[in-house]
Each structure stands twice: as C-alpha cells, then as structure tokens.
Fold this protein.
Amino acid sequence: MGGREHHPSQSRPMLRQAPTMRFFLMLSCLASLCLAAAATAEHKHVPLPQFEALFSVNLQVLTESTFQGPFGTRVHSMTSGGNLTNATTGEIVGQVLQNQDNGLYSTSGIFFPSVVLPVVWAADQKLGSIFITGVGVGETVKAYLHLETESPKWSSLNSRFLIANLVYVPPAANITIFGEL
C-alpha cells in the first residue's frame, strides 16, 4: 500500500522521555508540598494581635425607623451625641455629634451595623469621623473601625487598626474602642 508502515522503534524516544517527565512531575509536586509545609509552619508562629482600650462613648437612640427589604429589616436610628472619653482615665477627649446611623437585621437574626460617628476633638476642635462596620447577635456587636481626622493630636489613629465592642440595650448604646498595640 502506498502508506508508510508504523515501526515500533519510532515510539521509543517517547518511552525514554517518560521517566524524565515523571521525575520532573514528582519533583514539582514535592516542591509544592515543601512550600505548603513552610507556609503552614510560618503561620504557626504569627503572634496574636494585642489591643488596648482607647475610648468609650455612650449614646442614646432617640428614634428608630425600620422597613423590610430583600435581605432583612433595615434599621435607621437617630442617636444623641455624647462624650468620647479616654477608656482608662475617663477624661473627655471629644464630643460625638448627634447623628443618623443604620444597619440591617438579616433574615437569620444577625445584625450588621453601618455607622459613622462624627467627632469634634476637645484638644483642638478639629473634626474626625469614626466608621463602624460589624456583626452582632442580640445586644452585642463586634466591629471593625476606621478613624479619619484632621487633628494633629489624634492623626496617628488614621492608620491604626481599631476594633470595638458595642452593647445596645435600648435606648442606650455603649461603645468601647480598642487599638492594636
């Protein structure tokens, strides 16, 4: 026939390459396992973050409006202003202005607050904003905070990692703010 016959020796180069390919595949897998083990070992030695109490603020919820949305109950609350105090000494360091905050009670009963507290610092009358986002069930919310201010005295807080405990027993909302050491 006019076609070329297949000769068994033509496939031998492939057979010779197969052990080499298997070696590199095994080497690649072994290297991946070593990297994964090293990464896991590194994570075991990461120290837990340490926090210090910085501020406390007590607010009163003056009015509360709700409506049903597709994800749960939206809550809009008018809150009183209040003193922002040093959590250790009780010294007044700022004034939280009256504001409107909000959140969502999900259909599963979890509360997701989204709050901005406007602050006037006592030291220099400069403004600041404390942005609060969190998760809570019942009366207690754990929150992440971001603080922005133009105050030279408190500007170090602009880049500091902050968290908070918020306890809400109507009509009082008590917030303790912590900063990472």
About this structure: Strands lie at 51-69, 72-79, 82-86, 92-96, 99-106, 111-121, 127-137, 140-149, 162-169, 172-180. The radius of gyration is 30 Å. The chain has one helix and ten strands.
